[in-house]
Amino acid sequence: MNDIEKYEFDRVGYIVIRNLLTPRKTASLSAAIDELEAHALAHLHDPPRKVAAWGPEYHHDVARGYYASGEKAEGKTLMIEDFWNADPRFDVLVNHPETMKYIRGIVQGRATINNSEIRIRYRGNATGTHGGTRTSDRKYRYEFTAKGIDCGMVRMIYFVHDVSNDQGAFCVVPASHKTNLSCPYGNNPDDEPGMVGLEVKAGDGILFTENLRHGGLTNRSDQVRKTLHVGYGPFWMMSQNIATMDEPQYITETTLARWDVGQRALFQAWPRTLE
Ligand SMILES: O=C(O)CCC(=O)C(=O)O
Q1: Which residue of 29, 44, 56, 266 shows the fewest CB atoms closer than 10 Å?
Q2: Band of the pLDDT at 270, cuts 50, 70, 90?
Q3: 131 CB under 6 A from ligand 1?
């Protein structure tokens, strides 16, 4: 992470990273998402079920090791969590050297992965705005200390196709991680003053602090918006996936067996001796 990127991340709470993924990796991830979307849609209403503490009900796909909720319909989202277990093509994002350079610049101490979700957003869907306002909640906080930028949870979004504002761009209120008052505007991202859509190309990434006010503009197009979201934070943070919130990360034995020591170390549940 260079000095300009650090300055901008501190100033506005996010950066857009152009060409973070090579075209080859992008194409492979895109194909893996398409296959998993089809699998999840075919099994969405099957048992076993899990009702998350935050409300939504999930299908737990034991064979592929993921949780899925939502639906394929106008205005809806399909969420697939713990996608690592479902397909080894996602492994390129575990200890991805280009990503880790950024994470080490903004999370102090040993960082781990705490969140993994594929968001598939159909026509008419928006993601309600959330976050913003300085917080002392150690999970979401944004701080600047003697060590430099010192974040709780941060996320990297990987884009496998171009996304314009009309195609449901990820959106932010720049610098809202430093505001003091709670936001008076509700949670409609299309109407919120100060909200900015971040248009991207396939292969780009967006890194942001979870403390920043953010969401997703309405997808007004026929292109289904498909993105990969990976959360990082200090090592003590448990899963931040909705289905497994604050539980140990759900990584199957088969997945662990595929990974090297550096990849395993990025998960709270492995190796426990590092905690
Ligand atoms: O991309 C979106 O639609 C919203 C994503 C989001 O809220 C997140 O990654 O925390």
Answers
A1: 56
A2: low
A3: no
Query: What residues contact 6, with CB distance under 8 A and at least 6 apart?
Result: 105, 106, 148, 149
Quote the CA–CA distance of 127 and 76 in Å, as a whole number: 10
Helix (H, G, I), strand (E, B) or coil at 190: coil
Mean pLDDT score of the chain, rounded to an integer?
A: 95
Q: What is the DSSP string of 78-131?
A: EEEE-GGGG-GGGGGGTT-HHHHHHHHHHS-SSEEEEEEEEEEE-TT--EEEE-
- Rounded CA separation 75/27 (Å): 26
The fold adopted by the segment(s) 3-274 is Jelly Rolls (2.60.120)
Does ligand 1 have an atom closer than 6 angstroms to the CB of 170?
A: yes
155 within ligand 1 shell (Cβ under 6 A): yes
206-219 average pLDDT score: 98
State whether residue 159 is helix, strand or coil: strand
Which residue type does 61 have? D
CA–CA separation, 155 and 147 (whole Å): 20
CA-to-CA distance for 195 and 215, rounded, in angstroms?
Answer: 9
Is the CB–ligand 1 distance for residue 241 below 6 Å?
no
- Quick one: CA dihedral 169, 171, 174, 177, positive or negative? negative
Whole-number Å distance, alpha carbon 107 to ligand 1 midpoint, is 20
Q: Which residues sit opposite 78 in a β-bridge? A: 70, 120
Residue nearest to atom 3 of ligand 1 (CA): 216
- Residue keyed to tokens 């959360």: 231
Assess whether the C-beta atom of 60 lies below 6 angstroms from ligand 1: no
**How many angstroms does the Cα of residue 126 sit away from the middle of ligand 1?**
10
Q: Ligand 1: which residue has its CA nearest to atom 6? A: 215
pLDDT tens digit string along 122-175? Answer: 999 999 999 988 888 889 999 999 999 999 999 999 999 999 999 999 999 999
